[in-house]
Amino acid sequence: MSSDQVQYTHGYKLPALAGLNRRTAESHASWLLPRLKPGDRVLDAGPGPGTITLGLARAVSPGKVTGVEIGQPYVDLATETARNDNVENVEFLQGDALDLDFDDETFDVVFSFAVLEHIPEPIDALREWYRVLKPGGLIAVGSSAVSWHAHPLDAPLGPPKMNFYYRVWETNGGHPDMAADQPQLVRRAGFQDIEIGGFFQHSDPQQQASTWPERFRDPDFIKQAVDAGFASAEEIEEVAQEVEAWGKDPDAWYMLPWFWALGRKPG
Ligand SMILES: C[S@@+](CC[C@H](N)C(=O)[O-])C[C@H]1O[C@@H](n2cnc3c(N)ncnc32)[C@H](O)[C@@H]1O
User: Fold this and answer.
1) Distance, CA 68 to ligand 1 centroid (Å)?
2) 63: in domain
3) Is residue 115 situated within a structural domain?
4) Amino acid 21: pLDDT
5) Cβ count within 10 A of residue 181
6) Is residue 242 assigned to a domain?
7) What residues are in contact with ligand 1 under a 6 Å CB criterion?
8) Of 56, 70, 113, which is best to mutate to test ligand 1, by the most ligand atoms within 8 angstroms of its C-beta?
9) 124 pLDDT exceeds 70?
10) Cβ 129 vs Cβ 43: under 8 Å
11) What total number of domains does the chain contain?
12) Which atom of ligand 1 lies closest to the CA of 3?
């Protein structure tokens, strides 16, 4: 699969990046960090701009972390960030995390955050990651679920206002409520000793309000949503304006729930 065949709904433009490049291993993978050991060989499947990946690399040094990312813009950005931050035990490769160019039993840990929700058959990804893990190796996946995003009940973000966005995401093969299925998928892929947990990320309403409208106003997105009959262009613009107004409300707040699952490959 090439990057032009993958329909990554959030895209690679600035609005999507603004939400990703604030993530760190400490903020979004603190549940994994205590389990990493110096010397571990780690795969980050779908690292995006790589800000979490760099923290994983620091944790396993002198071990090595490889990020396999389908979007070339993020591979370039992550590589540049690693160079600027002087993190040398990390590499970012362009590729499909469902069809890895690695031998069986290569990695001690496979980590993937906020990626399964963009993959049409997440079980296929988990089986591929099982293949490249060493016996006894650790799978560590994290996902969100839009149905459980938390905000004041009249906020225009989340369902039902943003249903048109979630329907486009599903049309692109994604799963906006992925986290609900994550534990059973990890088990079905063959992993054992499964542990689950979660946390809320407080997200700045002004930042949400400055990024979602731009995504809604992307002409390609509008065309897809309108052609599929999920909303009219006018309805999408109305939600964009409501979100902008909401971002200025001093009482606005927004929390993203994240759920993680850890499991071991038997052996
Ligand atoms: C929401 S971003 C998460 C990025 C990063 N893990 C983080 O949490 O900051 C999802 C990423 O998965 C990548 N992706 C989606 N499908 C992929 C695939 N089949 N192989 C590799 N990367 C993929 C996207 O290009 C995007 O960078």
Assistant:
1) 9
2) yes
3) yes
4) 79
5) 17
6) no
7) 6, 8, 10, 20, 23, 46-48, 52, 68-71, 74, 96-98, 113-115, 118-119
8) 70
9) yes
10) yes
11) 1
12) 25
74: CA distance to ligand 1 center in Å? Answer: 9
pLDDT tens readout for residues 134-191: 999 999 999 999 999 999 988 998 889 999 999 999 999 999 999 999 999 999 999 9
Q: Judge if pTM exceeds 0.90.
A: yes
Going edge to edge, which strands form the sheet with 133-144? 90-94, 65-69, 42-45, 107-113, 133-144, 255-264, 192-202
CA distances from 20 to 23, 25, 144, 230 (A): 6, 12, 14, 26
Average pLDDT over residues 121-132: 98
The pLDDT value recorded for residue 15 is 64
Residue 112 has pLDDT above 90, yes or no: yes
pLDDT value of position 16 = 67
Residue 94: which CATH number? Answer: 3.40.50.150
Question: Which residue range forms the structural domain that includes residue 71?
Answer: 14-146+173-204+256-264
- C-alpha 110 to ligand 1 mean position (Å): 14
Dist. CA 45 → ligand 1 center (Å): 7
Residue type, 38: P
